[in-house]
Design brief:
CATH topology: Serine Threonine Protein Phosphatase 5, Tetratricopeptide repeat
Order of helices and strands: HHHHHHHHH
Number of strands: 0
Distance between the termini: 22 Å
CATH class: Mainly Alpha
CATH architecture: Alpha Horseshoe
Largest sheet: none
Mean pLDDT: 80
Low-confidence stretches: 6-19, 152-159
Number of domains: 1
Number of helices: 9
């Protein structure tokens, strides 16, 4: 697996009532606890803190954290905006079979954002994600008209721009 870049974001330590068991576990390199702290920080609008917790968990191989960190890079929330960094984290998660990351990586590969444009690989990733019951993958396949013999339609061409922002957490 290629190594994604890491940001050296400053992370404020929580004190007082926030020094809960979850915070202690997160500080002890518990990837699940770090992921939960990231979700909490994101809900509170602390994107830089969320990104740092996602990064800590992602570097330990937490597939959902890798996907969410990829999304933060795609959107430029809490970290620098970088399609290639987003693709790197989605790829790490997708290789673990995480359906949301497979779908997100497929969108990037379809458009060639941060990675080489490859509609065939995008179709494969979407089929894998759809096979796991991921509904967004089926929608993307239909929108991009991907399949054995894809023929672009006016509808799929008109909606390509909209699909650039259908990445999901």
């Amino acid at each position: 697996m290629k190594r994604c870049l890491s940001s050296a974001l400053l992370l404020s330590l929580f004190t007082g009532s926030c020094a809960s068991s979850l915070s202690s576990r997160a500080a002890e390199a518990d990837a699940d606890a770090q992921f939960l702290k990231a979700l909490q920080a994101e809900d509170e609008g602390q994107d830089a803190v969320a990104a740092e917790y996602y990064r800590l968990a992602a570097e330990q191989g937490h597939a959902a954290a890798q996907n969410n960190l990829g999304l933060m890079h795609f959107e430029g929330r809490g970290v620098w905006k970088s399609y290639s960094e987003a693709a790197c984290w989605y790829e790490a998660s997708a290789h673990q079979g995480f359906a949301k990351a497979q779908s997100n990586l497929a969108v990037l590969k379809y458009f060639g954002l941060g990675t080489e444009r490859n509609p065939e690989e995008a179709a494969t990733l979407l089929m894998l994600a759809h096979g796991k019951g991921h509904q967004q993958a089926a929608y993307s396949m239909a929108m991009f008209n991907l399949g054995p013999n894809p023929e672009p339609t006016l509808a799929s061409q008109a909606l390509e721009q909209k699909m650039r922002v259908t990445l999901i957490r």
